[in-house]
Amino acid sequence: MSMAKPDLASISPGVWFAAPALVLIAVFFVLPVAAALMLSFTDFDIYALGDLSRLRWVGVGNYLRLVGDPLFWTALKNTLYFMAVGGPLSVAVSLGAALLVNNRLVRFQGLFRVLFFLPVVATLVAVAVVWRYLYQPRHGLLNVALSHLGLDPVDWLGDPDWAMPALILMAVWKNFGFNMIVFIAGLQAIPRRLYEAAQIDGAGAWQQFRHITLPLLAPTFIFVTVITMIGYLQLFAEPYVMTQGGPANRTLSLGLLMFQEGFRWWNMGYASAIAFALFVLILLGSLVQLRIRRP
Predict the structure, then answer these.
(1) Please, is 267 exposed, middle or buried when counting C-beta atoms within 10 Å of its C-beta (0-12, 13-18, 19+)?
(2) What is the pTM of this model?
């Protein structure tokens, strides 16, 4: 019995055009995610790395270990703290900067947009070098400014109470430029005639902002909020470069804990379980935000 040959000519040309991209997505995204999910149900560690016969199927054992691991809950609390404080602050600063550089009364708008966007394209290592100097306990610029105000210096990165706020400040400074560009695009999509009609009716600047700008920026707000929340929940580079999770694990994030378990202690199965716990957290956060914003 001969098998019928597939009729390749009947396949839509669009499929052929999309096929290379789909293959790349399958190879470099779908397969690694599937492999990581499978690893999360095993005890894949450095011993299994040398001899696959040592690999054992542990089922949900890694996830049960997460529930009883105090370091995981510390990292989760730190990550949520970073997202809850840094996210709204970043969105607020981005919106303020967008309103500033989009105002017709402001001169050199292009120059300000470039200056505000520069931190986004700067490498985190370069940013960390600058901010470590700013946070230097004795000679840092911030403590010098505090001394002029008559306040005691702060050990920004060495004090457990100040380490996370210091990282939040640096992250907001580095990232607000991207959201600012998105907000500018949203502001420029609002018809000018609405503001002109409001001015004729006697509406002030605050009333125009409240009743025209904010409602018409709602879709942009949703996009910026979700993107910012996802990015801040994946906190890794800032504590990795600046504090290594210290002091006293006060800046340890889920991303950094996953990296340490996977590539420092070679507990790849446990690290994969942390990765999927973070994925579930991001998915739930996104769904909640979209649900809240739904009219």
Answers:
(1) buried
(2) 0.88
